[in-house]
Structures are given as C-alpha cells and as structure tokens.
Amino acid sequence: MRILGILFKQNKILNLLAILVSILFFTLIFVFVVNVNQTNIEIKTTKNFEGKNIYQVSDSLIGEKEKTFFKNTKGYDLLNEFNHELSRSHEFTYYTATWQPIGVAGFKGNHSFDPNYQISGQSTPTYELNNKTYSFVLAIQANKAVFDINNLQIDMGRQFTQDEYKYKENSSPIPVLLGGQYRDLYQIGSKINIFLYNKELKGKVIGFLESHQKIMTANQPELILDNYMILPAITFSENPSNYLMHNPKDELFVKASLLAGTDSILLTKQSPVKIRKKTDQIAAKTGFRDFQLIGASSLAINALVSMTKTNMSLIVIAITLLFFITLITFLYTLHLKMKKNIDSYLVLLISGANMLHIKKYVRDEFLLLSLIGTIIPIIPLLILTGWSFSTLLIYLFFSIGCILVISQLIKYYINKEFTNIDIVQHLKR
C-alpha cells in the first residue's frame, strides 16, 4: 500500500485527470442505468399500445337531452349498466383515465400542482367550504387498465384493489395514490379531505408512484403524473337509483362519475366494423344508445412507440462510444504515467522488486482510481433518483463489469508497454 502511495504522488496532475475521467465515466453509467430502466418500462408500455386501434366513446347527452335522460332515475341505471358491459367485454380493453382536478382541504403543495397554473401561469384562488380551505389540485381518475397498460411503477405502498373501485356509501376513505413530487408533502396513511363533483369525500394516501410515470389519455399520448393525485375511477356495483333515493343531494356526483366512465377509451386489435357491431350489441342489451364511437388517431401513439425504441438504441450507442473514449483516455494516461515513472520502477527493481510486482502495482493503482470514480457519484445520484436502491444495485453490477473489462485491458496494455521498455538499458544509465 505504501508503494501505491509513492506511485500515486509521483504524478498528481495525471492522477487527478484519471480520477475526473473515472468519475465522469461512472456518472454516465449511472445515468445510462436510470435511462435504460425507464426506457425498458416505456418499451413494455408502448408494446401494449402497438398495433392496436384506439376508439373514444363519447356520450351525446347535452343540454336538454341530458336533463330529460336523467329526469327519470332509471337513466342512471341504464348508463351504469352500459359502463359495466363495456368493462366486461373481451373484444377490447376498457380504459378510463379521466382528467378531473379536485379540491383538497389544507393543501400542503405550491402552485405547481394547480391545473390553472399549468395552463395560464396564474394560480386558482382557494375557496371555503364547511370551515375548510380548499385548493384546486391536478388529479386523474383511473381504472385498473390504466395501471396495467401503462406499466405504472409504485415506489412505496400499493395499487388500488378491485373492490376499491366500487363506491360504497359510508365506507372507508377513498384510496389515493400520489405522484413522485408529493413525497415531501404527505405520508402513507395521511388523511385528505377531497371535494369531487360537488361532494366532500374522505381520502387516504395508500402509496406513491415512482418519478416520471406516464399514462396515455384521450387528449395526450403522454401525461406525466409527478404532480397528480390519482383516484380510482368510481363504479357502482348496485343500481345508482337506489343510492339516490337515500342521497338525492349527490345527484351531480353520481351523474358525473357515470359519464366519466362512459367517456372512456377502447383499445383493440379488432376492425372498426367489429367494434361498432359489439358496441351496438351492448347498446341494444342495456338500452343506452346516446353515444358516439370516435376512431381516435393512432399516429401519436405509433410515433411514441417508434421514438421509444429509437431512444433505447441511441442510449446504447452513446454509452458504447463513451466507454471507448474513456478507455482510450485511461490508456493514454497510463502510457504517460509509465513513461514518467520509469525512475521509480528502477528504484523498486534495485530494492528487490521484480517486474511482476511492478506490473501489479501499476494495475492496482488504476483499479483504485476506478473504484474512486465508482463511489463518488453514488450519494448525489441516489438523492436525485429518490434513493432507489434497485437502481444502485444495477449500477454496481454494470460498474463491476466495466471495471473487470478495463482491468483485463489494462493488464494486457501494461505487459505490452513494459515489453517496449528496455529496463536493462535504463539501469546502465
């Protein structure tokens, strides 16, 4: 170890350069790991959309037509049964991702969570209700298909259970999942007062999504959920008319929840004719015909699939080029150090060391520099990635692999360099 210290002190500038190159290289490996991990998730997600036709179901209940339809509470039951039939069909995937901001009492976040600020740059004023101060907050109502197809990753906590999508009067609090930017604002188990569709609800945080999770909605091929609260897309297991008999003041809540379920997306590989036939059958069975089936454009989704695959290829090419650039820099630094350290090697030989020892000292010195470069980026990068230890393990796996490869190449290069150095000639000087 003392000899390594002596060799290290001989060329401080070159050693500093080697350390900086090493830190840069392993930082890029960390970035590569994070990007590959995220890109793999996105590739799995885009494969769920690839080759599928996308249809938007849109109700045609507008103005007086809507008032007439819901005047009889049986209209609620028709719409509810229509939604259930859509969800039960095997001809397509029933996909509900409803963009619907909500009121949150005593909200702890800043304007970045405000939907109006996202659009106009101005915050929405707070409002008072039952001695509580509510803020307008970004939110999405999602069914299970949204989680499955978009391959959403949970950082802490859990997803919604199947039973939690069913609205129950006087039941336990509605489960709430939070985007990655909420980690410092709430904890798992935190209670939240929510105002949704003119109804006050009790919510409970059950988990947090990993950062940069994305979903497709009817209006956007990619919606990043970092600043969103995610609620389950509410369904009614019993006839809503029975519920409204006892809770007439919740008419808007029930109506809006049902319409949100109707205005969903259908994903399928079936032809437009077959899907039209199937939805017509559902309409005939349930008695609800006030809707349109719109063939949404798949161009944005197909472009996203192509871009994701291209992004993965570019990442691999970039890291490969950086690997070779760093390796060349390492070897060139090694070449300069060996030329400058010849006198030190001669002293070691005179002191009783042999060439095998010297080669080992040189190799160990460069492995030490690599180790320093591996360790230094870990803490700041872990902080940036939210202390993702799974990412750390993958990073260490890649780093150890690179160090082993570099070690073998350096070993070969050292042998070659010492072959070109005439030690005997130097000793005669």
Key words describing this protein structure:
429 residues; alpha+beta; 10-stranded mixed beta sheet; 16 strands; elongated; transmembrane; membrane; transmembrane helix
Total domains, how many? Answer: 2
- Compute the gyration radius: what is it? 31 Å
Give the fraction of residues assigned to helices: 40-55%
Beta-strand percent range: 15-25%
Please state the average pLDDT score: 82
Largest sheet descriptor: 10 strands, mixed
How many β-strand runs?
16
The gross shape turns out to be elongated
Low-confidence stretches: 297-301
Count of separate DSSP helical elements:
15
Structural class of the secondary structure composition? alpha+beta
Termini separation (Å)? Answer: 29 Å
The multimeric state of the shown protein is single chain
